[in-house]
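Subject: complex prediction, re-run

Hi both,

The earlier run crashed halfway through, so I resubmitted it with identical inputs.
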Amino acid sequence: MNGKLLTPLARVRGLGSAGSGTHHWRWQRLTALALIPLSLIFVFSVVFLVSSDNEREVAVWLASPFFALMTMLMLAALFYHARLGTQVIIEDYISRACLKAALLAANSFIMILFAAMSMLAVLKLHLGFQLFL
Amino acid sequence: MSESLSSGQGASRQRPLSPHLQIYRPQITSALSILHRITGFAMVVGTMALLAWLWGAAYSPPLFAAMYAFFVHPLGRLLMLGWTFAYYFHLANGVRHLFWDAGRGFALDNVNRSGYAAVVFAVAFTAATWLFAVYGVRI
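This time it finished cleanly. Structure:
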């Protein structure tokens, strides 16, 4: 399979019909594949923690470099996958161009914000425990 | 969608559409397709709850306590059950999609059987997870 599924003209133009549709399609599948093991590890870890009212147990779980790393990779793949998914929902159901553009921008900004917040929280819990803070 | 084809502006004259949802019988294929999207979006909402829980654990004991209270509340438990099912279904149906992306499993009887299998997987794993985690059932 050649790297880009493009006709000769499309290759010259440098764009697909939607500009970047193949890129979106490919990354939706790549993040999905990564999320299969990453989300399973995460869910089986968290399923016990959720019923605890002691936040120290969350810190103890994330003190492990393995679980901190798996969680951060999971969060990166999750928010990228979610951003691509909600992008398609917006594109499918919003026909008014200005509203669509605004929602697509908001979608990207919000997903990036949430990704950053979740990574920061995981880092804080991991480093805080590792450094005995 | 004729609304978007008629003109660039939003307020175009309403033109009649041929009926679709009113007359086309739902099938396992179409039902699971929209359920895949619905469970995906439901998990976007659930991810916000996850973020609040993580942020509370890291920075805000009152927020963490509020999330704990939410999780043990009957309404919270109902949402968590829904999110558990959404996760397992989206996972199973997602794998089904990945097989299609590889070009496999397109025969109609295969599509129907894999569809039912995805639902059975989701229900079974949701039940098992909840029995195991919430009610402490061990085999």
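Chain B touches chain A through 39 residues (CB under 8 Å).

- K.
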